[in-house]
Every structure is written in structure tokens, then in C-alpha cells.
Protein 1
Amino acid sequence: MVLGAGLSLPVSAPGASYTLSVTNLGNGCLSSNTVQVAIDTISPAADAGLGGTINCVVPQIALGGPGTSTGPEFGYAWTLGGSLISTDINLPVSLPGNYILNVTNNQNGCSASSAVTILEDLVVPTALAGADISLNCNNPDDALDAAGSSPGP
């Protein structure tokens, strides 16, 4: 079957083989060459990791989960608010926001994304011990007044 004539033929059918035949019209000699068209559209895996909350006890969270594709053929791009912030596979963060990991297979151009949200809770409790007191012979005991402090659990 003749699919086309000329120097190029667009192809998009995977798993097919194409044969190019060239005939010398002057002497009738024929030369042929066959090529296979393979397809590689397998996307990489992207795993941004678990979300979390930054607070006074946990000032930093490591992003990047175990499900992300690894190897020299993969590229990584972390964004926050649409701006590129890192090209490493893992990312330590200390700011809240919606972080997006984009993983690209540099061999086939396929990519995948994963997002994770980091929250922030840095509300410092109020600690009021009350006014200074003096213990002496006339006032051998007294009470501290923490009224106005943040309540406990």
C-alpha cells in the first residue's frame, strides 16, 4: 500500500512498521528500508508527600513522598504560588502554602503533578504570672494569679 509520496510522512500509529521504497526511474533499481514506530507515553509518578502544619514544635516539614519516580531521566520542579522554588526531588519547607511537584520524564516528555498543602499555627499563648509579690514575716505565704493567661487543654 502506498501511503504517500515525497520526502516525509507524518506518523502517529504506534506499533506499526513503515517501509520506504525508492525506485530509480532511469534503470528500474529499487531500494527499501523499514522502520518500527514505537510509543512511550508512560507518565512518571509524582508524590508531593503528606500535608502538615508548621508550628512552634515543628518549624519545618519535608515534602516529597516515596511514590515519586526517581532516576536520571526525571526532572523535578517545585512551585509555590506559581513560582519555581526548587528542582530537587525533596523539599524542606517552613512557610505555609500550596506546594506543587511536577515530575517530567526527560526521555519521553510525559509529566505528572502532585500538590500538598502546608498550614501554619504559630499562635503564641499568653502567659501572665501576675504582679510581683514579697514573702516576709508579715506575709509568709501568698498566691500567684495567672488570670489573663491562655487557658490550658
Protein 2
Amino acid sequence: MNKGEIVRFFNDRLDYEKQQPYLIISPDDQIMECNWTFCKLTRYTKDELKKLRWNMDLTPAEWRQKEAETLDLLCQNREPRVYRKELLHKNRSRIPVEVVAHAITGHDGKVHKYLAFINILPRHKHSRKSWRKQRAYFTLLGYAPSIYYRCKNDRKWTMKWIEGDCYKLTGYQAEDLIDNKTVAWGDLIPPDDLERTWDVAQMGLRDSRPFQQEYRIITANGTEKWVLEQCLGIVNSKGEEFFEGFITDITERKRSEEQLRALLNDYENMTSEINNLTSKVISHLYMIRDTIDHKAEALMMIQKSIEDLLCIQSRLNLAKESVNRYSACQNIPFPIILSTTIKTHLSRPGYQGSGLR
């Protein structure tokens, strides 16, 4: 992977990691929680949003009745509702959006809160291609094969309905997976990942919060793929537990991450080798300096070379520390930061290059 490919991957990774805006709303219209992308979309802070009401404060007057009716229907039948509205920005401008709303019920069967995912709509006519790009920016559905689904909370993850690119993602048609007709979704997940996905899902259901996780599936032709799942546990009026959400193919991203980890490992090996070599050169220069008893100019040159080599070692180590800190924050190594970090350190005042000629 050359520098240009690394830069392109880094930019694509940043775009991919942008979460879809969502918020949680109480039955009395109070905003209870939201993610940072919803704050960014509206330009309100999270604390400011928690003091606002979804329908009364963030919805223009002409949209309020339609939205209230939609949420009433959602409360009655508990089926996800998709509707369009305008969202009020902090500066009072309007943002056209599509809302995918879910009712979150407790074990008493009553609606305790609503979960709303927000998709930005284009303000003017776009081509189909540009619309897909804009939608993919805020959702997990993009060019990668993806599905939207509902499944039962059982060990087989029995699918009740599936929409999207099921065949491209799994090699099976949607009807093959629904009610485990041919194969169960749980059968596609390797045993090493299956138990972990169960534990994560039960925790999300227990806490009544959306969650996401990554795991592997084995397709119909035996190919291993990595998927990212973002979903929410719901309980209907009969007390039956389900999960609804998106599953999208992230195999290419995982392969790129492995390449980046290999690049970081090569970088660490390289810095260790450079440190070893410069240490040997410094040691030899010290020996030469201590044995020469004349030629003051040569002594000064040797001393300057020693200082330069020590400076190179110091700044390589600083660059390595910066990369490690960045990798720890991102939970993935990003060697693209290496060139910037090293250039920054080596361009600091006081570094004039080697004194050896």
C-alpha cells in the first residue's frame, strides 16, 4: 500500500466512522439522549438539546400535527415508522430529513421512549447516484451490501423479515433465512463469534439502548466476511423480544486494517533498527573523539554529528510515541500519521541536519 492509497483509506475511514444521527425521545416529547452527529447536525450541545422538546422545539409548526399522529400510530402498533419532516437548526434554518422511528417498550408492555434515526434529504433534485452518496454519508447503508432486518431474540437469531442486499451479503435469498427456512442467521456466525454476539445483544436489550458490534459470517459458498451490525432490542405488547437494525459488509475495511497494522509493525521494526545503528555510530564517534588530541575543527564536526544523531533518535522515539497514542485513541493503527509526525519533529527549530560530510 503506497502513500496515496493510505491517504485515500484514511479519508474513507473517517467518512465511514461518521455515525448516523439519532436521538432518544420520552413519551412526553422531551429529548433524553442523542449522539454527537445529531449535535453536529443541529449545532446544539447535548445539554442544550436535553432541555428541548422534539416536536415542539425542533419541528416547524406545520409539521407538528403530522409527526404527532405518526408517533401515536407507532405507540399503538409498535411497528417502526418512516416519515419526512423539516428539522429546525439552532440558527432556525430548516433541514429536510427522513426519520426512522422505533418504539422502545418495557417488560410492562408500555412505550417508555422512542428511538429516532435521522437521514438527511437533498434540498434539490439530485441524480440517483449523488442521492445514494449523500444517504450513505449518514447511514450504514452505502455501496457495501447491507440488509435491514427484524429477528427474534433466540440463539438462532431467527429472521422475521429482511430487506436489502441479502443475496450479495450472504449468498442466500432473504426467504432462505426467514423463519430459518433453509438456514438460520445464527448458523452463518462462527462459534467463536456467536457467544460474544449473544452477550452483547442481551446487554443492549437489558439496557434499552442501541448498540453495534462486528463479527464474521460464512456465506453460502464458504467465504468468510466481516459485518457491522447496528440494532436495537424491542419488546412487543405480548412480551416477545426482537432486534431490529442494519447489517453491512465491512470485509474490505477489515482487510485494510490488517494492512495498516502490518505497516505499523514494519515501522516499529524500522525505528528499532535505526536506533540500533545510530547507537553504534554514536559509540564509535565518542571513541574517535576521545582519542583525537588535535585538529579542533574535526573534533567540532564529530561533536556536531553526535548531537545530530542523538536528535534523530529522540525525534524518532517521539514520533513513535505520537503514533502509539493516536492508535490507542482510535482503536486502530493509522500509519498515515507517521509522515506528518516525523516531518513535524524533524522540522523543529534547532535541527539542521547531519554534520557528517
Protein 3
Amino acid sequence: MQRSGERDRLTVVACGLGHYTASAFIRRERGDGVVGATELERTGALEALGLEPEMRIEALVEGSAGEFGGDVGDTGEPLGCPGDVVDVQLGFHVATVGENVTPKLANSSYCSGMAPQILVINGPNLNLLGTREPEVYGTDTLDDIVAELTAIAAERGAKLRHVQSNHEGALIDALHDAREWADGVIFNPGAYTHTSIALRDAVISSELPVVETHLSNVHAREEFRHRSMLSGVCLGVVLGFGKHSYAAALDALLRHLD
């Protein structure tokens, strides 16, 4: 409940495609908590705040920061309450803005100034790295690879979570869970790459950029490994560079998100 005379703190987050704003939303804070976030339309509330549709992001930050104020109406509550804009931030998204996108957009780390959250998923038999066919997969253990990748991510201002499972359903669950918190996924599906329509559907359902990643060059191996069920629905594919495939995938994913 808002006390009489109390004004909420509002943050305008402009989300862009390239150099231009595609949309924006208002995050409302009261006391120590966030009480709501609402997508701003390209007209109406967006223009009332002095934002022009598709204006250059640099112009928004340079010309608008700190100049907003007053009652912006409905920003997450049935009845609009007065508030002052205290910050202007930049974000990025590639999803079509709509009714069902707003909560995810509001929670996105890239649209809230937080460190990007990256999920790394490794599929069946990758827990045996270091001892399994080292002539193909190298001598580094999975723990070694994840530790090195975590350090690289930290240098880039990103945070990693890692999941490894030999079970298809657990990998699907990890992709489903990522919808709620992750900004992108690095995914080595192992042998499921070549067989799993269910994982392909889970990648699509995640609505996240996913980089398919492989230690070995699968196209230089057995013919049955040449076909991927997932490549067509992933942001991109990195393969053949051993443990460095993961670092290359992380770099490409962060560049895509930036």
C-alpha cells in the first residue's frame, strides 16, 4: 500500500534492436522492493515520457536522462500512482513485444542493468571428459572446462550456471527452467544432437538464444554424427576446437546479447 504523499521511484528501460529503441518499460520501486513493471506502447505513455518510437539510443540517454517526472499513470497497478523517474537504462531484446512478453522482459538481466545470466548445459557422457577418448575430446575434465569458462565469463561481466545430465528429460527440464532467469544458453547435447526431436522442441520453447557447442568436429567423424536435430533452431554452432569451443560460444553469445 502506498502511503499518502509517497512517490514511487521509476526506472525507464529502453530496449533496442541495433542502435534504435524498439520499446521501453517502466519499473516501479517502492521502499526496498519492485512492485511492478509495465510495457510502454509506441504511442501514448511512451510519447508522454518524451520518448519517440525508434529514436536512437544515444539520443535517449543523452537528452532524456533525469528530465522525466510526474504522474505516469498505470505502471503495474490497477490505479496509477505518482512517481518520479530516477534512472534511464539500456536493454536489449529480440522477442516480439506483446502481452505475454512483458513479465519476461521486466525480469531480463539485460533490461535491468544486471550481469547477463548464461546457462551451460552438457549432455550424456560428458561427465567422463578427461578419461573418455582423450584423442577425440581432450584431457581436460568437465570441471576444468566449466571452471575456466566461469572465469572468462566473470571477466566479461557475466554469470554462469552449469547443468550436466545423462538423461534427456533432465536436459529438457533445464531448458524449461532457463526461461525464467537466463539470457542465453551454451548447449552441448552430446549424442542427443543427432537424435532428439524433444530437445529441438525444448530449445524452441525456451525462447532464448542457444549456441550449439561441440568439442570435436562432428563432420570429420562418423556419418551419423553429421546431422544435427538442433542446429536449425539455434543461434549458431561452434565445433571442433576442444575446450575452446565453449569460450568461442560464450564470446559469440555475449556479443549477440550486447
Protein 4
Amino acid sequence: MTNGAEYVCFELGGSLFALPRTSLDEIHPLPLLFRPPGSPAALEGVYDVGGELVSAVRLDRLLGLEECDPGLYSHLIRLNEEHSSIALIVEKVVSVGPAGPGGVRPLDVDETFRGCVSGELDRGDTLVHVLAVDRLINASEAQRLSAFHDMEGVRSAIFGDGQ
């Protein structure tokens, strides 16, 4: 992580976190979500973006933080590439921009739970935890989310857009 890299900073559970801008596709306001029956606790629901189903995952639950119910100012941060069908629910996106003069202090994988925090942005009076997207959701969890997409896709095909 270099000082020139951009980060999306957001609030969650009373702390500040960041994701590298290169690991996400887009930021959405929180839409109306459909929660499939039997969904895992971390899955708040699914929503449609241009005919593609996206899973809205509670990042507070993934990280074991104090729960903060999604509200009017909550955002979805849609990931890219192999995780493009996943969006993380955060309390509020607060900035998008470079790391700043303090740069990023890398953390050893063994220093955090599942190595989810890969570094810290130094914002002078505040440290912002930089999350490693590839460690937030493992392969078996992604596979379970994909199964819910398939189930919801069949439902949409049967009932059409009106559900």
C-alpha cells in the first residue's frame, strides 16, 4: 500500500475503517433488501443492480463489532472482481481519497482476527483500520452466499420483477 493509493473510509461500530479503492466497484445508498429464508446471520438481504443480484452483508457482524442497525445514511460498498456479487453494509462513508501524509502502516497477518486488518492509515489524531477484502469472506462463505443468489434467481424467474 502506497501513499498514492486511494481509500474509502467509513464508520462502523464506533470505529473508522477503510478499504482500498481498487477493491471496490461502487458505493450505493441502502436500497430495500429482500432477505431469503434461512439466510446466514451476516446476510442482511439481496438486491438487484441492473439484473444482477448482489448480497448485502453486515460488516459489523463479520467483524464481531457492536451491531449498528442499517439506517437512512447507511451505505453499501459493492466489491469488485471475484467478490462483485457482495456489498458490505456500513454506517456511513465519510471520505474517498489518498492515504495522506501519514501513509499506511502495514500490520502482520497474525496481529488481527483472520488477518482482516492489513494496515492502519495515520490521519494525525486518528488511526483508520484498513481492511483486506480477500480475508473478510472466505471461499466457503462466498459459496454459501452464491447459493442464496441462485435460490433468489429462481424465485425472480418464477414471479418476475414484482415478487
